[in-house]
Write a structure and sequence with these properties.
about 140 residues, alpha+beta, 4-stranded antiparallel beta sheet, 3-stranded antiparallel beta sheet, 7 strands, about 20% helix
Length: about 140
């Protein structure tokens, strides 16, 4: 699963996800892409599940680009532990996704296969998405 090799600080504040994607909103590599429509945090497990679903459906033909990276640590305290005693340890890594962000790109397969692969990937995501093509620009 994806996670940073090292970070400047171990833990982060939660923060808010507001506004539209500033960058990463254009198709740069592939022919088809999966674009986020609403803001949310995408788990590293969700990214890996989407990648597996796409590559399995494409039968390892073509190419997949992952345009998001989970670099935000999310902490959690163990189950049935009382409040206080500091912040919990790192539980998972997430990527903050804003509306308009391209999450995955595909190339090297026909349109039907690409759209079905992106549909399967979209089912693994916790955000509403849209499948777009390079011709949409």
């Amino acid at each position: 699963m994806l996670q940073p090799k090292r970070t400047k600080f171990r833990k982060q504040f939660k923060g808010r996800i507001h506004g539209l994607a500033k960058g990463g909103s254009d198709i740069n590599f592939g022919q088809w892409a999966l674009k986020a429509i609403e803001p949310d945090r995408i788990n590293a497990r969700q990214i890996e599940a989407a990648r597996r679903a796409m590559t399995r459906h494409m039968k390892r033909q073509g190419r997949v680009w992952i345009r998001i990276f989970p670099d935000v640590p999310v902490t959690a305290k163990p189950i049935e532990v009382r409040m206080g005693k500091g912040k919990g340890s790192i539980d998972r890594w997430v990527a903050k996704v804003k509306p308009g962000r391209i999450m995955f790109e595909i190339d090297g397969v026909d349109e039907v296969t690409a759209k079905e692969a992106l549909r399967l990937a979209a089912m693994k995501m916790s955000v509403k998405t849209r499948i777009i093509t390079r011709e949409d620009w």
